[in-house]
Write a structure and sequence with these properties.
There is one protein chain. This protein is an all-alpha fold. Helices cover 96% and strands 0% of the residues. It is built from one helix and no strands. The radius of gyration is 45 Å and the shape is rod-shaped. It starts with a helix and ends with a helix.
Length: 106
Amino acid sequence: MTEEIIKSITNAEAKALEIKRVAQEQSARILADAEIRAEQILQTSAETCKAYRDEQLKQAVAQSEEEYCTTLKEEERKAKAYCATVLQTSEIVVSEIVGRIISGDR
């Protein structure tokens, strides 16, 4: 009977050692898989952020170009209107000066 108890304890210890070994192997695999997954997530996140940054930069450039063109057209319109006003005003003054020169009234 004592021999059976000792044998039972020895078997239990062997099973416990096997369970511990399997658990350590599993935890090592789980840790390795987690590290790989974390690296993949990090890489994917970096790529996503880079793509987002590039897209935002493209949109900012496009918006800036659009605003530049709009402002340029508006200022060109204003300049043409100003030139037309100045030309009309100067035409009257030039006519007066030419009339005075021709008529002798200086």
